[in-house]
Design goal:
The structure holds 3 protein chains of 3 kinds.
Chain A: H1 20-59, H2 64-69, E1 73-74, E2 81-82, H3 84-116, H4 119-134, H5 137-155, H6 164-188, H7 192-199, H8 205-216, H9 218-234, H10 237-242, H11 260-269, H12 277-310
Helix pairs in contact in A: 1-12, 3-6, 3-9, 4-6, 5-6, 6-9, 7-8, 9-12, 11-12
Chain B: H1 6-49, H2 55-59, H3 72-103, H4 108-120, H5 125-139, H6 146-170, H7 174-182, H8 187-215, H9 219-223, E1 240-241, E2 244-245, H10 259-268, H11 273-306
Antiparallel strand pairs in B: 1-2
Helix pairs in contact in B: 1-11, 3-6, 3-8, 3-10, 5-6, 6-8, 7-8, 8-11, 10-11
Chain C: E1 9-20, E2 23-34, E3 38-42, H1 49-56, E4 66-74, E5 79-80, H2 88-94, E6 95-98, H3 109-119, H4 125-138, H5 142-145, H6 158-170, E7 176-180, H7 188-201, E8 206-210, H8 214-220, E9 223-228, E10 231-237, H9 238-243, H10 248-254
Parallel strand pairs in C: 3-8, 3-9, 6-7, 7-8
Antiparallel strand pairs in C: 1-2, 1-4, 4-5, 9-10
Helix pairs in contact in C: 3-4, 3-6, 4-6, 6-7
The chains are: A mainly alpha, B mainly alpha, C alpha/beta.
Chain lengths: 311, 309, 259
């Protein structure tokens, strides 16, 4: 048979066609890997299903209007009230205190590390921040209740043993590493050429940092703040331990109060029959929490994506 | 405006320098504050808890008397839960990361998966607890067991493992992949003989960091109903218990407690004697977390030296 | 009386077009590859020679968005390599490739060469030892590495690594070997060694080599193809192309007026 045979055999020779067993084995493996990746989608669906189905049940007993406007949260009493604002107030106040600490401190550290510090200091700072970010939140809770609260009580007499202030401050320290590292990344991404333009005109480092770098990195900074807010809102143990778990509609940080998260813990510690209205409240509360953090997360992601486009 | 005189210029510069230095001091102060918090925390736990650092502490169960209360069921529980978490999260996470980097095409399905992973990384841990309560504990009927806890934490740290796997794989040069395919290897053979082995250091580091995070998690475990006062250990396979011989997997379905919950329990007690226990247990937990992170960093450094592209 | 050896076809590109997404990188290529001969592809940067080379072993399939049109017929099967019914894995088992930058795996020398065999399910130690030695000899590197087969391949010099990659490709007895600018990352001595190797190898294997170095093409190949902006401008015996090119564009490139 001459190699120049151009009779145009219609079939692919055995030596070039697909080997069926190998082909299907590859396909099977790919399907298994896809299934593993799809677990993330299943998890999200699971979360949505659990929260929504229990909440639907809940809202068949309690009107949404009451849920949003009632000023008492006493789901386990005979005269039950389901005003989520009570829990939200605790969440907002504690997060507010936390961010009042974390945003300035985190931003200052970020600016310092990005614009001022030499590499030795940066090398030393990295483990400190990583360490801070790796401490389990229950240990922070211990710290807040048994170390920080007594100190605060010495400074502010009349401060109760449980307070949103104490928990909020410690929560703030916990969030500092998140804000510092994300903000620092945002600032380091600003090209040197921008800074050089300012330095060449005789600008000081601080002036350049505040008037050139920070505005250029602002959406990255905002993204880090928003993700910090989301972290604060979702925090549980520090509040469960140090802020008391007593629902209390208040805007005063020097009082104890429950948050959405610490309420769920309180219920879980007790013994609620599956399917009772009390049981359902934690899912309604959880759904509220998820919606709040989801809004912040999406906002933060969008800002981060927008920021990345610029450079 | 008339140009500044030399003196005026000098004073502007001096003021600027002063502000720079003031800010530098503030920056250092903030960092120092962070360090002070860490040191104060550790020092407090060490000092307060020092009298409990005896072997008995590690071998005793919880008890109503502070001096006799130990963390046996807590650290055993933590280890067992970590075992289940690792067994669930590592195969799932590595497989998912491998799929996304080596097999996935740029289509809507891939986008949905990636968006989900990013979102899940930012969901509060207590929501995972609610998911587990509804689905693992009740729907699947796993009950308030080590299995439920392990699976919940596995889902929680899955994004961490997926991201480390993907980054480790991305570091492998395309030339290696092409070199393998050019010799007639299939996609899976390339993954099995090249991609996964070379990505192992990065993956391992990510796994250890994920487990270090999981071991300190409290909220999801409380939510699924881990009990705070446990004075027994899960049944060891093939030993005699009160109800006959324990099977191979009975321990997985057993009630349990973990270190963070034990700490929570002791911290919440008004009796100051238990503060000592809480401090000691807190220190042990911190030591566990820190040593895991240290191992991860060391491994990453060590293994990186061996692979030369 | 001269007896001309009739060159038989090993492969032939017929109306081959190739698209990277929307961009057309190869335009209507028609070109023979003769069995047990060395064919060189020359042309300025971006002319499509590597793209054309990588079509033979379906490397483009690894990346999304690529599209082939037309055929590459492969003999003796007389089958179109680009047909969707053809398994790229099978193609790559019969057509080997050596890359521009030596890319040995971070494994031992032995395992690098044995890899292609293991992938086909060959695990018998004696068979592997035999084939590895054969391949390393074929790549003219056996004497240099025979005492250190278990050492990491990355310990070898650049030229040695490239010969190792050639051995790796040879281990599976390919019918066609594709060389993608194999000496552009090597020093002149290593380059000379590889060129001599190509000369030896063509007795057993058909070779298609992309090179940006015209003198190399002149030294090493029996046939040469000049490509420009994705088109095949001229193809012919190396001696004829370099001495008397038919197309003006070829002449411009060869004389250095362009490129």
């Amino acid at each position: 048979m001459s190699a120049n045979n151009t009779s145009g055999l219609p079939q692919v020779s055995n030596r070039l066609a697909y080997n069926a067993m190998r082909h299907w084995k590859e396909r099977l493996i790919e399907a298994l890997l896809l299934a593993a990746a799809a677990v993330s989608v299943l998890t999200t669906l699971g979360i949505v299903y659990v929260l929504v189905s229990e909440s639907v049940s809940f809202f068949s007993h309690v009107s949404i209007v009451d849920f949003l406007t009632d000023t008492q949260w006493t789901p386990l009493f005979d005269d039950a009230h389901f005003g989520i604002m009570v829990l939200i107030s605790g969440t907002l106040v504690s997060s507010g205190v936390a961010l009042l600490v974390a945003i300035p401190m985190g931003t200052i550290i970020a600016i310092y590390l990005s614009e001022f510090a030499d590499s030795r200091v940066r090398e030393a700072a990295k483990p400190i921040l990583e360490l801070l970010g790796g401490i389990p939140t229950i240990v922070f809770g211990y710290f807040a209740l048994l170390v920080v609260t007594p100190i605060l009580q010495a400074i502010l007499p009349g401060l109760p043993g449980f307070s949103l202030l104490s928990a909020g401050l410690v929560m703030g320290i916990m969030i500092v590493p998140y804000i510092a590292s994300l903000s620092e990344d945002a600032m380091r991404a600003v090209p040197m050429s921008m800074r050089e333009g300012a330095y060449a005109m005789g600008s000081t480092k601080l002036y350049t940092a505040l008037h050139v770098v920070v505005p250029a990195a602002i959406s990255g900074l905002a993204a880090s703040y928003i993700l910090g807010i989301s972290r604060a809102v979702g925090e549980t143990m520090i509040l469960a331990v140090a802020a008391g778990m007593q629902p209390n509609l208040t805007w005063n940080p020097m009082e104890p109060a429950a948050t959405i998260t610490s309420y769920i813990v309180q219920v879980a510690l007790g013994d609620l029959p599956h399917g009772s209205i009390g049981y359902q409240t934690i899912f309604a509360a959880g759904l509220t929490l998820l919606l709040i953090t989801l809004v912040f997360n999406i906002l933060g992601q969008w800002l981060r994506a927008k920021f990345r486009e610029a450079y | 405006m008339k140009p500044l005189t030399t003196e005026e210029i000098r004073s502007v510069i001096a003021r600027g320098k002063f502000k720079d230095n003031l800010f530098k001091a503030t920056g250092v102060f903030c960092l120092a504050l962070a360090l002070v918090v860490i040191v104060a925390l550790i020092a407090d736990m060490v000092i307060k808890g020092s009298e409990r650092f005896t072997l008995d502490f590690f071998l005793n169960f919880a008890s109503r008397r502070a001096t006799q209360a130990g963390i046996l069921s807590a650290w055993v529980g933590s280890l067992l839960v970590m075992l289940v978490t690792a067994l669930a999260a590592v195969p799932l996470g590595v497989a998912a990361g491998l799929y996304l980097e080596e097999y996935a095409k740029r289509n809507w399905l891939t986008n949905i998966i990636e968006i989900n992973i990013t979102n899940l990384a930012a969901v509060p841990s207590i929501v995972y607890g609610l998911l587990a309560l509804g689905i693992f504990v009740y729907q699947f009927g796993f009950g308030q067991s080590i299995l439920s806890a392990g699976l919940t934490l596995a889902l929680l740290i899955l994004p961490i493992i997926i991201v480390s796997t993907r980054e480790a794989i991305r570091a492998i040069p395309a030339m290696i992949r092409e070199g393998s395919m050019a010799v007639g290897a299939t996609r899976w053979q390339t993954c099995r003989y090249h991609i996964l082995p070379y990505a192992m250091p990065g993956i391992l580091t990510g796994v250890i960091i994920g487990l270090a995070r999981a071991i300190g998690e409290t909220a999801p475990i409380i939510t699924i109903g881990a009990l705070t006062f446990i004075a027994f250990l899960p049944p060891v396979p093939f030993t005699e218990t009160g109800e006959g011989t324990a099977g191979l997997f009975d321990w997985v379905m057993s009630p349990f407690t973990v270190m963070p919950i034990q700490i929570f329990n002791w911290t919440s007690r008004p009796d100051p004697a238990f503060e000592v226990n809480a401090a000691a247990a807190g220190f042990v937990l911190m030591a566990m977390v820190l040593s895991m992170n240290a191992v991860a960093i060391y491994l990453r450094y060590k293994m990186r030296k061996n692979i030369k592209w | 009386m001269q007896i001309h050896d009739q060159p038989t076809l090993k492969a032939e590109a017929r109306n081959l077009n190739f698209y990277y997404g929307e961009a057309k990188a190869l335009k209507n290529i028609n070109m023979p590859i003769y069995d047990k001969k060395v064919t060189a592809l020359i042309g300025p940067s971006g002319c499509g020679k590597s793209t054309y080379l990588r079509s033979f072993n379906r490397m483009h399939d690894l990346y999304p968005g690529n599209r082939y049109e037309g055929e590459i017929r492969f003999f003796p099967d007389n089958t179109n390599l680009l047909s969707p019914e053809v398994d790229p894995i099978e193609v790559r088992m019969r057509i080997g490739m050596v890359f521009q930058k030596p890319n040995p795996f971070p494994k031992s020398i032995y395992e690098n060469v044995a890899y292609g065999l293991r992938v086909r399910g060959e695990n018998n130690r004696r068979v592997l030892d035999d084939k590895v030695e054969h391949a390393l000899r074929g790549a003219a590197i056996w004497d240099e590495v025979k005492d250190r087969l278990q050492e990491l391949a990355s310990n070898l010099s650049g030229g040695q690594q490239q010969r190792l990659c050639i051995a790796r490709a040879l281990a599976t007895d390919p019918e066609l070997l594709l060389f993608d600018e194999p000496t552009s990352a090597l020093d002149p001595i290593a380059t000379a060694a590889i060129e001599e190797l190509v000369h030896e190898l063509k007795k057993r294997v058909t070779i298609l080599i992309v090179t940006h170095n015209m003198q190399q093409a002149a030294r090493v190949s029996d046939y040469t193809a000049y490509m420009f902006l994705g088109e095949m401008i001229e193809f012919g015996k190396t001696d004829e192309i370099f001495i008397k090119p038919q197309d003006k564009r070829t002449e411009d490139y060869i004389t250095g007026r362009m490129g």
